[in-house]
Amino acid sequence: MTDTIFVTGLSIHARHGVLDHETEVGQRFVIDLELYTDLSEPSRSDRLVDTVSYADVVATTTAAFKNTNYKLLERAAGAVADAILSNFPRIRAVKITVHKPHAPIAAIFDDVGIMLTRSRHP
Questions:
Q1: Residue 47's pLDDT is what?
Q2: For residue 106, how far is the Cα from the chain centroid?
Q3: Which residue is catalytic, options 66, 71, 95, 100?
Q4: DSSP 46
Q5: What positions does the domain Dihydroneopterin aldolase/epimerase occupy (predicted)?
Q6: 3-state helix, strand, coil in the chain (%, to 5)
Q7: pLDDT given for residue 70 in this prediction
Q8: For 53, which of 33, 36, 73, 86 is 20 to 30 Å away at the CA?
Q9: H-state helical runs in the chain
C-alpha cells in the first residue's frame, strides 16, 4: 500500500535559468510535491515521530531548490528529489512539479514547467 503526503503551491524565489537576467534577478517558482509512503502507523498512533513532518519537507525542499543556481529546472527538481529521499527514509518515492510562471517565452501561456518522479528502488 502506498499513501501520499502532498504540498502544493510552495512559492520560492530562485535564480535558475539559462538567460543572464534569470540568474541575476531571479524569479518566482512554484513547487508541488507528492511524497509516497506508508501512513498506516501514524494513522493509528497519532504521533508525529511516526510520519514525515510537512515543515521539515518544506525546509529541505526550499534549501535544495534555492542554495544552488541551476540552468535547468530538471536539475533543480532533481536536487530536491535527492534531498528528500536522502533526508526522509520513510518516503519511498517523490513526484515533484516545478512551475515557472514567468518563463521567458514569447507567447501567452497559463503554465510551463517540469514534473519528475524519483524512487528509492527504481
A1: 96
A2: 26
A3: 100
A4: -
A5: 5-118
A6: 35, 30, 35
A7: 94
A8: 73
A9: 20-24, 40-45, 54-66, 73-87
| Annotation says 66 is catalytic | no
pLDDT reported for residue 103? 86
Q: 79-87: which pairs have CB atoms within 8 A and are 24 or more residues apart?
A: 80/31, 80/33, 81/116, 81/118, 82/118, 84/33, 84/35, 84/57, 84/60, 85/118, 85/119, 85/120, 87/56, 87/60
The reply to whether the predicted model has a pTM over 0.85 is yes
- CA distances (Å), 43 to each of 8, 38, 46, 47, 94, in order? 22, 10, 6, 9, 20
pLDDT value at residue 19: 84
What pLDDT, on a 0 to 100 scale, did the predictor assign at position 122? 56
Query: Grid coordinates in use for 68?
Result: 544552488
Residue 1: what pLDDT?
57
Gap between the terminal Cα atoms of the chain: 17
Is 64 in contact with 80 (CB distance < 8 Å)?
Answer: yes
Backbone region of residue 30 per phi and psi (left: phi > 0; alpha: psi in -120 to 50; beta: other values)? beta
